[in-house]
Task: structure prediction
Amino acid sequence: MFGKLLRRCQGIIPGHNFRFNHPLYSLDASAIDLCLSVFPWADFRSTKGAIKLHAGLNHKAYLLELVTVTTGKISDIEVGRTLEFPQGSMVAIDRGYNDYAWFNQLTEKGIFFVTRQKSNADYSVIERREVTRKQGLSSDQTIEFAGIQTVKKCPVPLRRIGYRDPETSKHYVFLTNNFKLAAKTIADICKARWQVELFFKWIKQNLKIKSFIGTSKNAVMTQIWIALCVYLLLAFIKFQSKLNKSMQQILRLLQLNLFAKRDLLALLRGGPPHNKQLSI
Result:
């Protein structure tokens, strides 16, 4: 069901907000806490249970396209390695996915990544490029990793970009295997990765996946996948109607009129009912 709804949405979504044509994804995971005494199959820590929602958000309309639900013990990078991205894609990831061997595999597949550099990374600079400091950039370098084991895992050169956020004054260091895009664009891609954090926040607040009706693994997984299907239905309505309403506004309208026989488009537009139907 999720796959069928996703294919419907993919056919009508607009493009992302960047000038390049590469597909852009933000990848992250979020834990959903469970009481271990009630959900013993969700063993996470000695006194805590959890399941983990792994999500890949397509920046075309911020649509959820890649999703996996696992127990809390499964690490982010374990799932990341199993995901298949289209060739030429840009993937924005956080430090939970820092794996030098995976960086090399993505590069070999023609997939670009953008992530934050580990503070203890050992590397040498082999090239420096000029930067526009007015844009908040502090460095744009080509680096190679040092250390015998690290070099074996990732023998390819990477691009290291320093950036100071003008809003928070925090300094960030990004790594990427893309040498063509502007340094400021790379920084903006990392900043845009927070959209996947907003997705997790939205779905937990609006689609009831923090408390569960059943206690078995099948019951919990079913409830989560139903919530994700509802998310895609709302996304489809938003894209198909072409109205300037948020998904939360659409959800509230549907909740308030759940048992009323109303034309959907008329309800969304706020006008009188008419005969035109929105088909899915």
